[in-house]
Request: fold
Amino acid sequence: IAGITQAPTSQILAAGRRMTLRCTQDMRHNAMYWYRQDLGLGLRLIHYSNTAGTTGKGEVPDGYSVSRANTDDFPLTLASAVPSQTSVYFCASSDGDSNGYTFGSGTRLTVV
Amino acid sequence: GQNIDQPTEMTATEGAIVQINCTYQTSGFNGLFWYQQHAGEAPTFLSYNVLDGLEEKGRFSSFLSRSKGYSYLLLKELQMKDSASYLCAVRDSNYQLIWGAGTKQIIKP
Reply:
């Protein structure tokens, strides 16, 4: 692994189903983030974690939950998917310096 | 509220110079970032400004004026591979990134 790995790459999900998007980094970054990106809108923060064991809510947290049991992993769970959660989801990490965020390759989720 | 404004789309010719503007209103300021995002791919880091002035990095330069809440990304000697969206983001007082919607840069041969 080099950088951030997200899985799956894409998924079609029936409404009402539960889904976990996986994110793993090998850079030992303390901070990790989940964003969604929709056409015409900027990246919107769902949840974040400044360090292992802590999490916080972003701009659009409803319907999503996260956990941060260790430094490397930051899964995002949709408890009961709805069509409005159709989006591209990006996981990112940061070591807090001037290099900004490193992004995973994204998960394209379609809820039908 | 917090707001980042960028033009939605710009068009330029291969070999030309283009300037992509970004204005911001945020709760505090702890740096401004520019990212490049090719269609279907993740954003990648281009530049970081925290002090006023111009930062040059090869064909790309970024300028910041904190008093005006303004930045621009300058792309020189445009190449077809520069066709992408360019995202402006400001780190606020909580050290969270606030993102603009991005500028789609179209390059014609």
User: Anything to note?
Assistant: Chain B touches chain A at residues 4, 31, 33, 35, 41-45, 48, 50, 87, 89, 95-97, 99-102 (CB under 8 Å).
